TrEMBL record:
Domain of life, per lineage: Bacteria
Source organism (scientific name): Candidatus Hakubella thermalkaliphila
Name of the protein this chain belongs to: Uncharacterized protein
């Protein structure tokens, strides 16, 4: 996925994490952002184009399949999600249409 837009200065955010978790079913609520995720990968906050297919992702996906779970949920988040206090918007904006998860099965 590639960021559609970059906003401001992200240096205070730390690194960008991708993790897996179980939000459950139904629409997301604001409180869901506090559900901890199992870290799969980290990226420097300067990275805007993200592509990841590491062993951690494969293992997490296979664990969900083996457990009979119907879904696989991912969370992207900053390691230090705090403001730099300058009153301007900071962060990355991704469009849903450019985010994809490709799974290849082999025997």
């Amino acid at each position: 996925m590639n960021a559609a837009r970059e906003h401001g200065d992200r240096s205070s955010f730390g690194v960008l994490w991708i993790g897996t978790l179980d939000y459950g079913t139904g629409p997301l609520q604001a409180s869901d952002r506090n559900i901890p995720a199992q870290r799969l990968a980290t990226f420097p906050n300067s990275v805007t184009a993200i592509s990841y297919g590491g062993e951690n992702m494969r293992t997490a996906l296979q664990s969900r399949i083996d457990a009979g779970n119907p879904g696989f949920q991912l969370k992207m988040y900053w390691s230090r999600p705090s403001s730099n206090g300058n009153g301007h918007r900071d962060g990355l904006q991704y469009s849903q249409g450019i985010i994809s998860l490709r799974v290849e099965c082999t025997d």
